[in-house]
């Protein structure tokens, strides 16, 4: 994957260009759609007034400049559907999505290290086999199916949690755990594999000869290579979490960002779509940048030798 | 053993999809007098909450799932190969642009790419196939790029170039055979992911207009009827697992998983 920060900045610029051009490629005239959504007459006057208000009558480069400056200064435009500011639309929804997505990914990242270590200590053991089964299941069973069944069992059959009507904590518990479980499954296998690879290295034999137990040797000398593998997998995993969060939100009827985005596609509400897409892209770039920086800290070898 | 279980998973789904391709019954025929009919009789798998034939809907959903899967896989291979080779051997500015494009596609989540494509083309199975295909292009192109650059450094390629082979000629004769097996293995590991991703996007409502019999959309629609008629949820779920699991079993990825 991407290794250098300037390249990453270029990728971000490329994304901003694609997202900027999106409304031009979408079918329909945005001003006309907005008037339709607000149930106003689509007279030439009204259309021109809206276009002028949004700056759509200016040249493309000028519009792009306006778009980027607006995004950076927190002015993400006005929703065509409701006429409210996009930031206002997103603000109450963001905490839900963030809790599920970031919370799930955090739990998975923290839990995969001890689990992978335990699985690597006894290859072929019960724990190793069950993490493998979990990984296979996560690859064959979509998250939302498990979400539907879990919601049914826990809230309707056993009445343990109020999935749909409880407080925020009760409503967030299951979705967050579900995202964590799905992110955990492959990460645990990756950590386990990295630790097994490290176990065959000569330095591990030296550590054992010094008198460390297998468990201790793996922890002291296998952790660094395992962390490097984990970092490489972090961005693809975060990318999965974005989609996984959306699906789980819909399955549990959580008023998060994904609901807003899906509705916005149907009504061609491009300011909302633009803001969401660019924000997610920015988030992914930030995750990848953090992975690059952490990798350099963890791996002191120069990039040319490490490759 | 694994081949056998893969066949056991895939054969029913393939038969089901074939039935969907031929079209056994009207998937939209509503019969409110005959809601939640049990399996058997005219309706092999019973009817749903609107009295629609579950088997016909399941079959057509299977046909759509298989088409999207194959379409996305074809786009991933073709575009991944083209972009990867361009990123490895084209004229330098073009090469860097191709590389950044591949990295961009690899960085963006499937959902983001799907939203972009569906916003432009509207929700339909071809749009989803394009979106899922594009989502796979990034990793595939980066794989091709790495392998192609490695192959270009081999002495036999240098010898071919010295003997007068053009860059494109060397790419076709020497780089392509070195890259293709790895790309196909990657694809085999990726196909199960395409199936699940498609179901997820259909569940979100990006698959087609509402009421279309995609498995994901069926699960979204039937989830409220889990109490009265569990089979409505269990059947699309089972076919989904059979297809994705069967594809995963068919060729096991050597290192686990890059979902």
Explain briefly what this protein structure is.
Chain A is mainly α and 307 residues long.
List key phrases describing it:
heterodimer, A: 307 residues, mainly alpha, B: 259 residues, MetI-like fold, 9 helices, 73% helix, elongated, disordered C terminus
Outline the secondary-structure elements.
The complex is a heterodimer of chains A (307) and B (259).
Chain A: H1 5-25, H2 30-37, H3 44-54, H4 60-72, H5 86-90, H6 94-121, H7 126-140, H8 143-157, H9 168-199, H10 202-210, H11 214-251, H12 257-266, H13 270-298, H14 303-306
Chain B: H1 2-22, H2 54-89, H3 92-107, H4 110-121, H5 125-152, H6 155-162, H7 167-204, H8 215-222, H9 230-250
Helix pairs in contact in B: 1-2, 1-9, 2-3, 2-5, 2-7, 3-5, 4-5, 5-7, 7-8, 7-9, 8-9
Question: Can you walk through the features of this model?
Answer:
The complex is a heterodimer of chains A (307) and B (259). Chain A is 78% helix and 0% strand. Chain A is mainly α and 307 residues long. In chain A, helix 7 crosses helix 9 (168-199) and helix 8 (143-157) crosses helix 9 (168-199). The model of chain A has no long low-confidence stretch (mean pLDDT 85). Helices cover 73% and strands 0% of the residues of chain B. Chain B has 9 helices and no strands. Chain B starts with a helix and ends in a 9-residue tail after the last helix. The chains are: A mainly alpha (307), B mainly alpha (259). Chains A and B meet through helix 1, helix 7, helix 8, helix 9 and helix 11 of A and helix 3, helix 4, helix 7, helix 8 and helix 9 of B.
């Amino acid at each position: 994957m991407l290794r250098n920060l300037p390249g990453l900045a270029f990728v971000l610029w490329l994304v901003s260009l694609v997202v900027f051009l999106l409304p031009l490629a979408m079918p329909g005239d945005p001003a006309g759609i907005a008037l339709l959504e607000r149930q106003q007459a689509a007279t030439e006057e009204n259309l021109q007034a809206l276009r002028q208000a949004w700056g759509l009558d200016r040249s493309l480069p000028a519009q792009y400049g306006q778009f980027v400056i607006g995004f950076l200064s927190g002015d993400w435009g006005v929703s065509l559907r409701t006429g409210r500011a996009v930031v206002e639309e997103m603000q109450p929804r963001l905490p839900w999505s963030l809790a599920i997505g970031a919370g799930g990914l955090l739990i998975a990242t923290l839990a995969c290290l001890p689990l992978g270590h335990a699985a690597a200590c006894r290859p072929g053991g019960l724990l190793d086999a069950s993490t493998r089964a979990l990984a296979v299941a996560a690859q064959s069973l979509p998250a939302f199916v498990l979400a539907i069944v879990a919601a049914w069992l826990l809230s309707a059959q056993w009445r343990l949690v109020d999935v749909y009507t409880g407080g925020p904590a009760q409503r967030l518990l299951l979705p967050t755990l579900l995202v964590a479980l799905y992110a955990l499954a492959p990460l645990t296998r990756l950590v386990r594999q990295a630790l097994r690879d490290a176990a065959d290295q000569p330095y591990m034999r030296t550590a054992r000869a010094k008198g460390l137990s297998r468990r201790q040797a793996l922890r002291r000398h296998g952790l660094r290579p395992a962390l490097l593998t984990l970092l490489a997998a972090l961005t693809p995993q975060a990318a999965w979490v974005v989609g996984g969060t959306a699906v789980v939100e819909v399955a549990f009827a959580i008023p998060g960002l994904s609901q807003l985005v899906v509705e916005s596609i149907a009504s061609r509400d491009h300011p909302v779509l633009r803001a969401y897409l660019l924000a997610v892209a920015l988030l992914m770039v930030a995750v990848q940048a953090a992975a690059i920086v952490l990798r350099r800290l963890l791996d002191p070898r120069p990039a040319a030798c490490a490759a | 053993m694994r081949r056998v279980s893969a066949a056991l998973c895939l054969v029913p789904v393939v038969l089901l999809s074939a039935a969907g391709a031929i079209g056994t019954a009207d998937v939209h025929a509503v019969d409110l007098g005959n809601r939640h009919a049990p399996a058997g009789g005219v309706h092999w798998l019973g009817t749903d909450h609107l009295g629609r034939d579950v088997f016909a809907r399941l079959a057509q959903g299977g046909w759509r799932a298989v088409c999207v899967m194959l379409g996305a896989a074809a786009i991933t291979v073709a575009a991944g190969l083209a972009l990867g080779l361009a990123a490895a051997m084209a004229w330098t500015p073009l090469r860097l642009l191709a590389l950044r494009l591949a990295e961009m596609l690899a960085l963006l989540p499937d959902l983001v790419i799907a939203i972009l494509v569906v916003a432009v083309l509207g929700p339909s199975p071809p749009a989803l196939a394009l979106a899922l295909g594009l989502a796979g292009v990034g990793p595939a192109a980066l794989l091709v790029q790495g392998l192609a650059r490695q192959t270009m450094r081999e002495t036999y390629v240098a010898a071919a170039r010295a003997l007068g082979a053009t860059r494109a000629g060397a790419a076709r004769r020497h780089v392509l055979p070195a890259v293709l097996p790895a790309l196909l293995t990657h694809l085999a590991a990726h196909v199960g992911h395409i199936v699940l991703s498609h179901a997820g996007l259909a569940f979100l409502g990006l698959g087609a207009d509402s009421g279309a019999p995609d498995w994901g959309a069926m699960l979204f629609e039937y989830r409220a009827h889990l109490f009265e008629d569990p089979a409505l949820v269990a059947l699309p779920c089972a076919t989904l697992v059979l297809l994705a699991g069967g594809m995963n079993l068919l060729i096991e990825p050597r290192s686990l998983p890059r979902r």
